[in-house]
Design a protein that fits this description.
The protein is of the alpha+beta class and 155 residues long. It has helices at 12-24, 86-97, 105-113, 123-134; strands spanning 3-7, 27-32, 47-53, 59-62, 65-68, 73-75, 81-82, 103-104, 140-145, 149-154. The strands form three sheets. The protein has a four-stranded antiparallel beta sheet with strand order 4-5-6-7, covered by helices on one side.
């Protein structure tokens, strides 16, 4: 999601400090004329800086969902964040990375929760149920593979 910064008065040193700070925080700042912006005639600024997020190398997309592994955040098709608990996010990320196949519970438990399924836990099934609710408005389907595990696919 692009952000705008408006600066009033001409201060080249201030511009440089702001631009370097934005770059250091993962933005790709661009100078813009206020007249080229919608409603620019009402803006009282000498300069507008448009800040678009740099594409993260650790972003993975499947269907309507994009996850950013660096900042542990998921976005829908409109770029709006979808809120997941840390465990839900970990399970979703693992399933997206392995969307080309079904993932067994025995593989999922150590990868997401850090333990093996020695006691017949249902934690993966409970988390899958919550993920399904949160993915309901997307084109992703979390399928249960009977007596095996889970598969994430695009509708």
């Amino acid at each position: 999601m692009a952000k705008l910064i408006y600066i009033h008065q001409d201060d080249e040193q201030l511009y440089d400090v702001i631009i370097e700070a934005l770059k250091a925080h993962g933005y790709a700042p661009e100078y813009s004329s206020k007249t080229s912006l919608p409603g620019g005639d009402r803006i009282r600024a000498d300069l507008a800086i448009v800040c678009a997020s740099e594409p993260s190398p650790n972003r993975i997309s499947l269907g309507d969902i994009t996850i950013d592994l660096d900042i542990v955040c998921a976005y829908d098709r409109n770029g709006q964040p979808i809120h997941f608990t840390p465990i839900e996010f970990s399970m979703l990320a693992y399933l997206i990375k392995n969307s080309h196949r079904a993932v067994s519970r025995d593989e999922l438990l150590p990868a997401v929760w850090g333990f093996s399924n020695a006691g017949g836990t249902r934690v993966a099934d409970d988390t899958a149920k919550r993920l399904r609710r949160k993915l309901a408005d997307t084109n992703l389907v979390l399928e249960t593979v009977w007596n095996y595990g889970f598969r994430l696919r695009v509708k």
